[in-house]
Design a protein that fits this description.
Blueprint lengths: L1 H39 L2 H11 L2 H4 L6 H12 L9 E3 L5 E3 L3 H37 L4 H28 L1 H12 L13 H5 L2 H45 L1
Antiparallel strand pairs: 1-2
Helix pairs in contact: 1-5, 1-6, 1-9, 2-4, 2-9, 6-7, 6-9
Length: 248
């Protein structure tokens, strides 16, 4: 009987650790996907970032057109606009077509990626709530639950640190690897001399956007780490009190 109870206890501890680990990963995926989705849909931020990183002289886009361009891009990425294109009249009244077909094709790929990111939010969000409830049900093994969260934190932090170092050493190679991983064609390979899209969104633009995502990731990871440590401390205190009561 004692062996059966011991085996059951080990099983519950393992389950609590697995729940904690999955909870951390689900939370990180939810926060990152929600942040990416929100950034892609923020027209004011899009326009401000494009203007901050590229002047009208460099981009070829008049100053007053940046807000309209930001709105067009975000509307397209959110699936509320069917065609990726922007037009404006120059000082002589001549109409300028901003994007070439291969630029539009690449943005179609980006829109699909954003759509999948949006779906990921709806999967991981409920998953976080379900895993929290599972953790509460396994509260008798809270230390194992906390250990699972901390394991997820450690592995994710190590991976994030490796990616950060990679980006600091060679952002271009990281940028290339990202596109090779998530895009099936070479439409993202553009020439700043001929393609307005890459002029509006230079490397510094993506570094800035990536930093915003990194901040959200770091905040979620820090909150998870703090919660896990508090759960562990509470578990240790409970064990000490139980031991003192048994010895009394």
């Amino acid at each position: 009987m004692k062996e059966d109870e011991s085996s059951m206890d080990r099983t519950k501890k393992a389950a609590a650790a697995a729940v904690g680990f999955c909870l951390f990963l689900a939370l990180i995926l939810f926060v990152v996907s929600a942040t990416v989705y929100n950034i892609a849909g923020d027209s004011a931020l899009m326009a401000a970032e494009m203007r901050r990183h590229t002047s009208p002289k460099v981009s070829g886009l008049p100053e007053k057109q940046y807000p309209e361009m930001g709105e067009m891009i975000t509307e397209y990425l959110m699936g509320r606009r069917d065609v990726f294109q922007h037009y404006f009249n120059d000082a002589d009244g001549n109409m300028t077509v901003c994007f070439q077909p291969h630029e539009a094709e690449h943005m179609a790929d980006c829109r699909e990626l954003i759509r999948r990111t949006g779906i990921l939010r709806w999967i991981t969000g409920p998953a976080v709530l379900i895993l929290i409830l599972a953790g509460i049900m396994l509260r008798a093994h809270r230390k194992s639950f906390a250990a699972g969260i901390l394991t997820g934190f450690g592995l994710t932090a190590a991976a994030a640190f490796a990616i950060l170092v990679w980006g600091l050493i060679s952002f271009d190679s990281l940028f290339t690897a990202f596109h090779r991983l998530f895009f099936t064609n070479d439409g993202w390979l553009m020439d700043s001399r001929t393609d307005m899209l890459v002029r509006l969104m230079p490397t510094s633009f993506f570094v800035s956007m990536g930093f915003k995502i990194l901040l959200a990731f770091a905040a979620a990871a820090l909150v998870s780490f703090t919660a896990a440590m508090m759960i562990r401390i509470a578990g240790n205190k409970e064990d000490e009190e139980a031991q003192e009561a048994a010895e009394a």
